[in-house]
Amino acid sequence: LSFLPQEIVSGESEEESNGVNLMEFSDEILLHILSYVPCTDLVLNVRRTCRKLATLCLDKSLTHTVLLQKDYKVNKDKVKQLMRDIGKEIYQLNMAGCYWLPSSTIDHVTRCKNLVKLNLSGCHVTSLRLSKMLSTLQHLRSLAIDVNPGFDASQLSSECKATLSRVSELKQTLYTPSYGVVPCCTSLEKLLLYFEILDRSREGFMLSGQLMVGESNVPHYQNLRVFYARLAPGYVNQEVVRLYLAVLSDRTPENLHAFLISAPGSFAETGATKNLLDSMARNVCLDALQLPKTWINGSGLLQHLKFNNPFYFSFSRCTLSGGHLIQRVINGGKDLKSLTSLNLSGCVHCLAPESLFRKAEDDIDSSILESLVVSCCNLRHLNLSAAHHHSSESIGNHLCQLLSRLKHLLSLALPVCSITDVAANVEKPPTASNLVPQTFGRKVRIGIQTYPRNLADQANQKIESSVFWALMGNLRFLETLEIIGSSFSSAMPRNEPAIRNSLPPCVRAQSVGDSEVAAISQLTYLQSLTLAQLPNILTGSGLVSIGLQCQHLRTLSLANLGMMGKVVYMSALMDMLKHCKCLRDLRLEQPYFCAGAQFFQALSHCSSLQRLCIVSRSGTLQSDAVMSFMANCLEVIMCHMFMGESLTVCKNLQQSIVRSFQADRPALNVVIFPLLHEDLTEVIRDVPMRHLDEITLFKSRVAEEPPNLWW
């Protein structure tokens, strides 16, 4: 049991003068320590070491809530034994994303007679198994499930429907057109819907958004307080969500306080949705709002909606101007201290007074941002990515200087061009990177790069007076940071072939490089970092500083850094990885990336690594190096590599990894496939949603959803 000190495991005392016997600590301290140990290990292993731990491991504070959602070592037998030992003591059970467990595992949940909250998203559950399980869970009030092809609501027993009638919170992920169990949930207060229905079947047939025969039951929304719908790309998802919304348009729940619809692309407004919005404007007072961009653009809707104490707004991809934002959303700059999360991703005009005659690259109006900062002083999550937010040369009005006032920020997403120092950008002569065409190809060559090997040398090169350096110094408690080029697009979109060409970076972003990356190392508590399309990366020296200083870093995503024809930061990246002991997720997207022996040897220092994703046009890999890495890093359960290798090489390596490691790693998910192959989308559809949504697909995740939307 390497996760516990030997003193706890054995119960023996240290005889050395400087030794500490943890078994002499109070029960409260030991319970706190044990709370960091996976429940399966506590119940099945730790409690068998001594009498004291046998008692503590079964304390209600440790068994009340059981989280299995990222316990990748758990298997069917462990779940079975766990339910036998403490099933009656479990009130909240989270098995979300346990895709590797067979569907029969769900049968053991019936032992948890006192369950109040149950999350089975991503688990294999048939209609009959769901019916049998829910029939025994009479105290259940919160449920999360997937609805897969073949789901049949007519197979649900009367006892199951009785349980569902008492459920007040439902999260439902749809992979087929269906109401699922929504019509049975007559007491719903919170409804979360995730639409993941594909437009075509595996056989290539077009799918219809019409519900299956026998699914004409009407959902019950009269008690609804929260309605959330997130749509994957595709017209079928739009057709099905309209069926769910049709009932809302007839009678809007008077207690509705959060209405959120996240839809990519164009989602046309219909007569029914217009009636729904008009009814909401008349009858409800909202605390959280997100609507498709086409429902907001050009309409006066925001002027009529009423807000109480809003905590979340998302106007992602809307053409909302800064003038409208100030006047209609934050009431002319009035106090909005309740707002904790704001998503303005892709709102290209949100920091300008009007959008009619403005170009997307024009300077922002700092007074609008200042009003926003002053009014929403308690913001914890702010997303300003996917837009050109260029500051003027006015002293003290730079975007970074204004954002420095938001002392409570925990997550922040910014476009690369917004962090450049205006004066430095004007005066700075072109560097070698600026002169290199930002295109693919092997023709461009530069000399061997060197970079400072210690922080003292780094300090001599950094621009401590820059506005971005000051911003990072003022946001010391930031946990998530995304710096993404305003024109960046990943080579792996959701349901389309891989993108072969990318747009050039913004001109203002040309000076952003190593010194700005080094500034990030001030964030001592940083847990998640995304850097994409930073054109002036010459050596990647700032990455080494981050590896040394940001010891809590758990998620790292790097994409298109420096010039595109060569991975100029490889040496620095390898040095960085040697210090990332807590890193769990790594995503790399870079043309011509060489995943060879040296890279995987450096990566092997990341002892906590669980998931790896590499996306590289014309990239290469060494199969023996990958196998050696997988053998050395025992925690790795996901390996996704989309490179330039042949289909034969990819298939052989994938089969070798699965054959060698699947038995000891039940959750192992391996996808190695040519990036530009025509069947890539078919391969992607088989990736578990947990990995696809959290790491494989690139996207901005700051303020993507309201905080604490689900547990």
Automatic annotation (TrEMBL):
PROSITE patterns with a match to the protein in the record: FBOX
Which residues belong to any copy of the F-box domain? 19-66
Which branch of life, at top level?
Eukaryota
One cellular component term from this protein's GO annotations in UniProt: SCF ubiquitin ligase complex
Q: Which PANTHER family match?
A: F-BOX AND LEUCINE-RICH REPEAT PROTEIN 18, F-BOX/TPR REPEAT PROTEIN POF3
| Biological process per Gene Ontology, one example term | SCF-dependent proteasomal ubiquitin-dependent protein catabolic process
Which InterPro entries is this protein grouped with? F-box-like_dom_sf, F-box_dom, FBXL18_F-box, FBXL18_LRR, LRR_dom_sf
Q: What is this protein called?
A: FXL18 protein
From which residue to which does the signal peptide run?
Answer: none
